[in-house]
Design a protein that fits this description.
- With 84 residues, the chain is an all-alpha fold.
- It folds into two domains: 1-40, no CATH class; 43-84.
- The chain has three helices and no strands.
- It has helices spanning 4-16, 27-32, 46-82.
- The mean pLDDT is 87.
- Residues 48-82 form a coiled coil.
- This is Integrase catalytic domain-containing protein.
- One of its GO terms (molecular function) is nucleic acid binding.
Length: 84
Protein backbone atom coordinates (compact mmCIF):
# COMPACT_ATOMS: atom_id res chain seq x y z
CA UNK A 1 0.00 0.00 0.00
CA UNK A 2 1.43 3.36 -0.96
CA UNK A 3 -1.35 5.82 -0.11
CA UNK A 4 -0.75 5.92 3.65
CA UNK A 5 -0.05 9.66 3.54
CA UNK A 6 -3.62 10.31 2.37
CA UNK A 7 -5.09 7.84 4.86
CA UNK A 8 -3.08 8.89 7.91
CA UNK A 9 -5.38 11.78 8.94
CA UNK A 10 -8.37 9.42 8.88
CA UNK A 11 -6.53 6.89 11.05
CA UNK A 12 -5.43 9.65 13.41
CA UNK A 13 -8.99 10.94 13.78
CA UNK A 14 -10.27 7.41 14.39
CA UNK A 15 -7.63 6.76 17.07
CA UNK A 16 -8.09 10.11 18.81
CA UNK A 17 -11.90 9.76 18.73
CA UNK A 18 -11.96 6.29 20.30
CA UNK A 19 -12.29 5.94 24.05
CA UNK A 20 -9.14 4.55 25.64
CA UNK A 21 -9.70 1.35 27.60
CA UNK A 22 -7.21 2.38 30.28
CA UNK A 23 -8.39 5.96 30.84
CA UNK A 24 -12.00 5.79 29.69
CA UNK A 25 -11.41 9.08 27.83
CA UNK A 26 -10.70 10.10 24.25
CA UNK A 27 -6.98 10.73 23.60
CA UNK A 28 -7.94 13.97 21.84
CA UNK A 29 -9.87 15.13 24.92
CA UNK A 30 -6.95 14.32 27.20
CA UNK A 31 -4.64 16.44 25.02
CA UNK A 32 -6.89 19.41 24.27
CA UNK A 33 -9.68 19.39 26.85
CA UNK A 34 -12.53 19.08 24.35
CA UNK A 35 -13.88 16.43 22.01
CA UNK A 36 -12.99 16.54 18.30
CA UNK A 37 -15.64 17.47 15.76
CA UNK A 38 -15.78 14.90 12.98
CA UNK A 39 -18.38 16.91 11.08
CA UNK A 40 -19.17 20.58 11.12
CA UNK A 41 -21.82 22.13 8.86
CA UNK A 42 -20.30 24.28 6.11
CA UNK A 43 -19.98 27.94 6.93
CA UNK A 44 -21.08 30.72 4.66
CA UNK A 45 -20.26 34.37 4.31
CA UNK A 46 -17.23 36.63 4.12
CA UNK A 47 -15.01 34.41 6.25
CA UNK A 48 -15.53 31.54 3.82
CA UNK A 49 -14.32 33.67 0.92
CA UNK A 50 -11.26 34.72 2.91
CA UNK A 51 -10.55 31.08 3.75
CA UNK A 52 -10.82 30.07 0.09
CA UNK A 53 -8.39 32.81 -0.92
CA UNK A 54 -6.00 31.81 1.87
CA UNK A 55 -6.18 28.15 0.83
CA UNK A 56 -5.43 29.10 -2.78
CA UNK A 57 -2.46 31.19 -1.61
CA UNK A 58 -1.12 28.25 0.38
CA UNK A 59 -1.50 25.93 -2.62
CA UNK A 60 0.45 28.40 -4.76
CA UNK A 61 3.13 28.65 -2.08
CA UNK A 62 3.45 24.86 -1.92
CA UNK A 63 3.76 24.69 -5.71
CA UNK A 64 6.53 27.31 -5.65
CA UNK A 65 8.33 25.42 -2.87
CA UNK A 66 8.12 22.20 -4.88
CA UNK A 67 9.70 23.95 -7.88
CA UNK A 68 12.47 25.40 -5.74
CA UNK A 69 13.18 22.07 -4.06
CA UNK A 70 13.35 20.35 -7.43
CA UNK A 71 15.77 23.01 -8.69
CA UNK A 72 18.02 22.51 -5.66
CA UNK A 73 17.79 18.73 -6.01
CA UNK A 74 18.86 18.91 -9.64
CA UNK A 75 21.74 21.23 -8.78
CA UNK A 76 22.91 18.85 -6.04
CA UNK A 77 22.79 15.95 -8.49
CA UNK A 78 24.83 17.97 -11.00
CA UNK A 79 27.57 18.76 -8.48
CA UNK A 80 27.57 15.25 -7.03
CA UNK A 81 27.97 13.76 -10.52
CA UNK A 82 30.93 16.07 -11.24
CA UNK A 83 32.93 14.41 -8.47
CA UNK A 84 32.35 10.85 -9.66
Amino acid sequence: QNDWVELLPVAQLAYNSTESESTGKLPFFLNYGFEPEAYRPPRQGEDVEKAIIKAEDIIELHDELRRQLEFVRQRMIKYADKNR
